[in-house]
User: Fold this.
Amino acid sequence: MANKDSLIEQFKEKSSLIGVIGLGYVGLPLLLRLADVGFRAVGFDIDQSKVDSLNNGETYIEHISSDIIKKYSGDFFEATSDFSRVTEVDALLLCVPTPLNAYREPDMSYITSTLEAIVPYLRPGQMISLESTTYPGTTEEEIVARIEAEGLTVGEDIYVVYSPEREDPANPVFALADIPKVLGGATAACVEVGQALYEKIINQVVLVSSLKTAEMSKLLENIHRAVNIGLVNEMKILCDRMGIDVFEVIKAASTKPFGFVPYYPGPGLGGHCIPIDPFYLTWKAREYGLHTRFIELAGEINNAMPTYVVNKVSDALNDRRQSLKGSNILVLGIAYKKNVDDMRESPAVTIIEMLHSKGAEVAYSDPHVPIFPQLRGHEYFNLQSIDLTPESLAAYDCVLITTDHARFDYDLIQQYGQLIVDTRGVYQGSHSNLVKA
Assistant:
């Protein structure tokens, strides 16, 4: 096993150069963590604007300040779009997207294109870690097989591990270093090398027996949440029909000190993980002749929530003798969760699109997203966030709360909004201008 012991020693002494591929919400915090603990690092990305921003000491993610970029840029890390520099690094941490295609099947194009970019520059004595969420078997089928096709032996020349990201943007309680890191390897030697690196970055490394086990553990984490959110979303619809406040129900149930974990309903699922990852497993399960009915049912419920919200808006307007078509609607919050600027898979975007298609005039306010980004499939939304004032609120037929940012003035909204549709349980009790959805 040439180079294994020397590579482990380099990791322990932090004398190695580490590469991070993909500098988004997962890769950039990891790059900064490497710099923070004393590693030298290179960040790779095909987006030249991200590369330029980092090398100029500027951030492009709201909860990561430019000050922290400036602190480490140049001395501890640099960014590049030149993948020939892969040959310089001792470890490569792959943090690329794994979305779904139009048929809700895994889209491996980011992983395969990354491999095409790096394989010509791989050399013996390197470690590769995939951090992207994916179906069990991906690391073996896509990475190990591709490397060995080039004549390199995994476990002897190149060390391959899978260690899924657990990034939670803007989480005030758990920083990257505090979240235990699951690690599986292609061989025992791979695990040994991967552990040597990650234990210098993360406070606790959790070793598992195989790559597939590590891959499945990440899916279970996210499917657990998706299924329970699907359950509570279905409960919300039932409670609405029965005239019961589901948030009051959850609050009461949460007083039980054991056996109950609260999950909260909303307008749909957002983020890169929860709306997408369950479908990676349902797709792979079909290869084994299994139909994952429970997981798919939760997906159906969660995917239907934007339609439920739009129907609630329509009904609320109808009760006021107004039509959805031609109404002016203000959507509050277009990030997928509170207090971040992350819009990946945001249900608010789907809701805006549905309202627009039904003839509503739609505007939005989000202090974290000042300009509606040019999302694929939504380029026609040429919108900017509006400021909330008594005059602006009163000008809309309906104010729809889709993301409950802390920076919104909810007293102001309640006082001046003609009609408020609340999908997040912001308001308790009943008000003449309030509809809970």
User: Anything to note?
Assistant: The first strand starts at residue 17 and ends at 21. Residues 211-242 form the longest helix (32 residues). The domain at 210-303 is CATH 3.40.50.720 (Rossmann fold).
